[in-house]
Amino acid sequence: MTALCLGGMGAAWSQSVAILGSERAPSYVQVSDAIQSELQRSGTATGIPVAYATDGDAMEVLLSKAPKVVVTLGAAALRTLLASDTRLPIVAALIPRATFEKVLREPGRKSAGPVYGIFLDQPFGRQLDLIHLVQPDVRRVGVLWGPDSIGQRHLLQAALAARSWTESAGVVGPAVPLGEATRQALEGADALLAVADPMVFNSTTVSNVLLASYRSKLGVFAFSPAYVKAGALVALYSTPVQIGAQTADTARVLLRGGVVGLLQYPADFSISVNEHVARSLGVSVDDVGLLERLKRMERKP
């Protein structure tokens, strides 16, 4: 059966935000809970229905509650909603920018409403600022690209050019295995920036990339705190609560008829540091102080 939070009745649904998660994984549940908590705290919406794309009747049940805005969490939920005949505004969260853009290009879309993206990945400018704060001497950044992430390469190149930095790239593909691409990315690099791509970074590959970087005495700047535990130097990411708060704020503005950006990177973020790796690389840094310095950089005009 479809899992729903049925805390409201009648007219309350007409002012509601509905949430469609891709599955019942902890990350989706945590963000969904954060969205509901923020909307209820602000008095924007109560009795928020929640369903999952893995349920066969999810869309029928959600749309029967007449929400004015639907939040999707993850790619599967966004695909499910885009395949439905609805004109409702969609706020797509918990999804990398590359995946978001890929899903919007896929055939079979019926939904005619506007789609707002709240990306899981951090803006490249912010990531390069972090690299500079941790290792000020970095001028050449190694990057591994895969088929899903390669479309974002021009964005990184622009951010690098703005700092007069260069890229050492390895592109994974049919003719270039991950091991060879990793060697290419590390050659001549001062640090490795991990960009999310399922072909490059997954449970079976990440340890090899981290080990190769460690042997090259290069710090890895990752996008997940799990990678810091596995051996990355630093991770820059947004927590479920941070993503949930931004998603709820976007939905709240839309409910009130306001204007929001179609494409949004995380407004708030967190940092994790692997102190053992930092010591081995001769880097002195603490996550709290580093986070404060990075946020100060973002506040500069």
Mean pLDDT: 91
CATH class of the largest domain: Alpha Beta
Q: Termini distance?
A: 51 Å
SSE-based structural type: alpha/beta
User: Per the principal axes of the C-alpha atoms, what is the gross shape?
Assistant: globular
**Backbone CA Rg:** 20 Å
Q: Which fold name corresponds to the CATH topology of the largest domain?
A: Rossmann fold
CATH architecture of the largest domain: 3-Layer(aba) Sandwich
The biggest sheet, with number of strands, parallel, antiparallel or mixed sense and barrel status, is: 6 strands, parallel
CATH H level, superfamily name of the largest domain: Response regulator
Number of helices: 12
Count of β-strands:
12
Percent helix range: 25-40%
Strand content range: 15-25%
Helix/strand layout:
Layout: E1 17-21, H1 26-41, E2 50-52, H2 58-63, E3 69-73, H3 75-82, E4 90-95, H4 97-105, E5 115-119, H5 124-134, E6 140-145, H6 153-162, E7 166-171, H7 178-186, E8 191-193, H8 206-215, E9 220-222, H9 225-230, E10 234-237, H10 240-255, E11 263-264, E12 270-273, H11 275-280, H12 287-299
Parallel strand pairs: 1-2, 1-3, 3-4, 4-5, 5-11, 6-7, 6-8, 8-9, 9-10
Antiparallel strand pairs: 10-12
Helix pairs in contact: 1-10, 3-4, 5-12, 7-8
